[in-house]
Amino acid sequence: MYVVMKKIILSIIGVLVVLIAGLIIYVLATWNRNYEAPLPDIKASNDSTIIARGKYLAFGPAHCSTCHIPMDMLLKVENGLEIPLSGGWELSLPLGTFRAPNLTPHMETGIGKFTDAEIARTLRYSVSHDNKFVFPFMPFQGLSDYDLTALISFLRSQEAVNNNVKRTEYEFLGKALLAFEVVKPVAPINDPPKIVIKDSTIKYGLYIANNVANCIGCHTERDLKSGAFIGPDFAGGMNFEPDAFSKGYAFVSPNLTPDKETGIMAEWNEETFITKFQQGRLLDETPMPWGAYSRMDEIELKALYRYFMFLDPVKRKVEKTIYLPGEELP
Fold first, then answer.
1. 193 falls in which pLDDT band (50, 70, 90)?
2. What DSSP state is assigned to residue 208?
3. Dist. CA 327–CA 79, nearest whole Å
4. What is the distance between the alpha carbons of residues 209 and 114, in angstroms, rounded to a whole number?
5. Which of 71-75, 111-115, 226-230 has maximum average pLDDT?
């Protein structure tokens, strides 16, 4: 009897070893697959007005300058310093180590060797110049053609900086999620607009919050292993673990819906909201790019406020948003 049981157990172990080995082989063989995506008909412009709009987006609501800079320059840029976006930000997550690339027109280490359409495809479809997956930290899928043109035009206008940033490196978990396409390139849900006229309306606020400033990305609870949204839109609850800049602090994003009991917007009128944004960063450690948002003009801030107040109220209590070093996140 003992011999029989031993053989059965060994057989089970053998099967498990084969299955695990097969899984590992499959993941390593398939995770770095190529993807197809259209090349948008976007061409950079030398028009100073268009370049100025791109610069405004990069250092303002789109906050490209929050990540695509050397890590030791973050607070200086947040406080108003304008430098070429030569990359360097690094973020470690269970999926892997993510790095923000050099966005200056340097030929060898930046975007100089890429076409305008290839850059536009990366931003809009999460597919790189060499057809690889790019994790969509900034959801520019719905960015208008005009704003996408403006952004690329500004990037082309910068000083070329020689800064070779290593590509993102995935851990086995990240490779497994890619292999089984749990995470994959994100395409626009609808055809992106040609242009969205800037005004203080709810419609324009929707555009800024969802397609430019990524308010939805941080103020909606997400699964940090896959990046998938798992909570109500704009109802907060996204956890931010301590990182290289937070000095041990951790954060939870607040509820931005106008729920009178649990939503932070119910506490602010329009004037208070605008003043809050215009004052910039008050706490160095927070992941909120207050410096970039402080450069938003009043028209866009009004549009954001009106959009948030237009949202359906969601009753979701975020007990607190700042956790001291050593405190455990919920």
1. very high
2. I
3. 29
4. 29
5. 111-115
Question: 14-43 burial, b if ≥16 CB within 10 A, otherwise e?
Answer: eeeeeeeeeeeeebeeebeeeeeeeebebe
pTM of the full predicted structure? 0.92
At 11, the pLDDT band (50, 70, 90 cuts) reads low
CA angle, 30 as apex, 29 and 34 as ends, to 5°?
125
Shortest CA distance to 259 belongs to which of 318, 176, 300?
318
Q: Quick one: which H or E segment has residue 170?
A: strand 169-170
Question: Is there a contact between 55 and 295 (Cβ–Cβ < 8 Å)?
Answer: no
C-beta contacts of 197-202 below 8 A and 24+ residues apart: 198/299, 198/300, 199/299, 199/303, 200/299, 200/300, 200/302, 200/303, 200/306, 201/303, 201/306, 202/303, 202/306, 202/307, 202/310
Which tens digits make up the pLDDT trace of 41-97?
999 999 999 999 999 999 999 999 999 999 899 999 999 999 999 998 888 888 899
Residue type, 161: V
Structure tokens at 152: 């690329």
Query: Which of helix, strand or coil describes residue 297?
Result: coil
| Sequence-distant (≥ 6) Cβ neighbours of residue 101 within 8 angstroms | 68, 87, 110, 165, 167
pLDDT of amino acid 1:
60
Question: Dihedral (C-alpha) 223, 63, 142, 123: value to the nearest 10 degrees?
Answer: -90
Three-state secondary-structure class, residue 172: helix
Which residues lie closer than 8 Å to 51 by C-beta, 6 or more apart?
45, 150, 153, 154, 157
C-alpha 174/C-alpha 69 separation (Å) is 24
Separation between Cα atoms, residue 234 and residue 212, nearest integer Å: 15
Answer yes or no: are the C-beta atoms of 62 and 138 closer than 8 Å.
yes
pLDDT tens-place string over residues 30-40: 999 999 999 99
The H or E element containing residue 323 is strand 322-323
